[in-house]
């Protein structure tokens, strides 16, 4: 049975999970936001980073996944769909996605909606306790890394020329030099 979308109305998290119209949405404070299809470079970067993380995490407790529902705050009608996430607490994985703050999130910024990744999600991820958050800009060939220290994010800036150490995964370096 198809779920009928309510225009400009409040959705509960449970209603959000019932939507099956072929589109991808994020839910922020009960409001639906349709997500656009990723560009080819977005997909290439995402695939490469997932591959590198899967290799590093083989035989470790943490795992990498992508584009799943993440309900940062259990009692809120909000759900984000990060491009890439690393989770180390598998007890928070449910049939509907992940509940709580993943350890590490990567978003590949879209030039059509930069405020979402650079402002809104930055604040949400910090407030939820995401230990490390990266924003990758394919257009500028820059990576902003935010590491949580005492409830505040510390920023470091890198380019696609750099090997970047993942702070939450000791010994892991990610390489985007093939995209420079």
Written account of the structure:
- The protein is α+β, with helices and mostly antiparallel strands.
- It has one domain (38-179): tt1808, chain A, CATH 3.90.1570.10.
- It is built from three helices and 13 strands.
- The chain has a six-stranded mixed sheet with strand order 3-5-8-9-10-11, with helices on both faces.
- Strand 1 and strand 2 form a beta hairpin.
- The longest helix has 18 residues, at 40-57.
- It is globular.
- The chain starts with 12 loop residues before the first helix and ends in a 5-residue tail after the last strand.
- The model has no long low-confidence stretch (mean pLDDT 94).
List the helices and strands and how they pair.
Blueprint: H1 13-18, E1 25-28, E2 31-34, H2 40-57, E3 63-65, E4 70-71, E5 84-87, E6 93-94, E7 97-99, E8 104-108, H3 114-128, E9 132-137, E10 142-149, E11 152-159, E12 163-165, E13 173-175
Parallel strand pairs: 4-7, 8-9
Antiparallel strand pairs: 1-2, 3-5, 5-8, 6-7, 9-10, 10-11, 12-13
Please give the number of β-strands.
Answer: 13
Give the neighbour order of strands across the main sheet: 3-5-8-9-10-11
Global Rg: 16 Å
Main sheet properties: 6 strands, mixed
CATH topology: tt1808, chain A
The low-confidence parts are none
Alpha-carbon distance between the two ends: 46 Å
Structural class category: alpha+beta
CATH class categorisation: Alpha Beta
Percent helix, as a range, is 10-25%
Which architecture name does CATH use?
Answer: Alpha-Beta Complex
